[in-house]
């Protein structure tokens, strides 16, 4: 149950057995069916969720009513609306399970308790935020400096298991493509052809 997350945090900081046990005691285990909305726009996000099993996406709905996928999260990743969680303000996002998922949850209260009792966890969460910020900067640079094909190939390289687990129209949304264009890219790449937008 906790082996994956314990390995995850021990990659950041060395913890004692007692500290790990206390951390595990504060986590809430939740099994969530496929296509469940964990968070909806207008709600305050009350969780930081570590994914033990499953696949979850974060998205928003633009003024035209179109869903725009911002993130896919799978095993050994965290998912949340960080701004809503920490600032206790209404979220603009939706978080939805794409598969039956098992998550380990921290609430704002249990996270504060954890940080108070075991200050070493400050470093764990700081390193997580740094990693996520780096990923966001990389994605922004990629958006403005690479071709559509390069975006798709980079996505496949970074997240090789996701295309088998996620509907193609969600991947197209994540990449900023139409589903038709993504299909064209995939078909031509499978035939070894170059593709230009």
Largest sheet: number of strands, sense, barrel closure: 4 strands, antiparallel
Rg, please? 18 Å
Number of helices: 8
> What spatial form do the alpha-carbon principal axes imply?
globular
- By DSSP, the count of extended strands is 8
Terminal-residue CA separation = 45 Å
Secondary-structure arrangement, i.e. CATH architecture of the domain at 3-119:
Sandwich
Under CATH, the topology of the domain at 3-119 can be stated as Jelly Rolls
List the helices and strands and how they pair.
Blueprint: H1 3-10, H2 17-26, E1 28-32, E2 37-39, E3 48-53, E4 56-61, E5 67-73, E6 78-79, H3 82-87, E7 94-97, E8 101-106, H4 108-117, H5 121-145, H6 148-158, H7 168-175, H8 179-190
Antiparallel strand pairs: 1-8, 2-7, 3-6, 3-8, 4-5, 4-7
Helix pairs in contact: 7-8
């Amino acid at each position: 149950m906790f082996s994956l997350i314990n390995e995850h945090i021990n990659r950041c900081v060395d913890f004692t057995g007692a500290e790990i046990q206390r951390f595990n005691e504060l986590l809430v285990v939740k099994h969530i069916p496929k296509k469940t909305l964990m968070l909806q726009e207008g709600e305050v996000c009350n969780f930081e969720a570590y994914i033990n099993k499953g696949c979850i996406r974060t998205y928003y709905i633009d003024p035209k009513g179109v869903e725009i996928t911002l993130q896919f999260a799978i095993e050994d990743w965290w998912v949340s609306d960080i701004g809503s969680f920490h600032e206790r303000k209404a979220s603009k996002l939706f978080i939805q399970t794409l598969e039956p998922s098992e998550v380990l949850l921290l609430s704002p209260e249990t996270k504060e308790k954890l940080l108070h009792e075991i200050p070493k966890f400050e470093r764990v969460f700081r390193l997580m935020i740094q990693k996520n910020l780096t990923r966001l900067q990389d994605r922004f640079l990629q958006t403005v400096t690479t071709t559509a094909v390069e975006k798709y190939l980079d996505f496949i390289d970074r997240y090789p298991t996701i295309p088998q687990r996620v509907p193609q129209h969600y991947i197209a949304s994540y990449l900023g493509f139409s589903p038709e264009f993504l299909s064209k890219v995939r078909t031509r790449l499978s035939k070894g052809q170059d593709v230009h937008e």
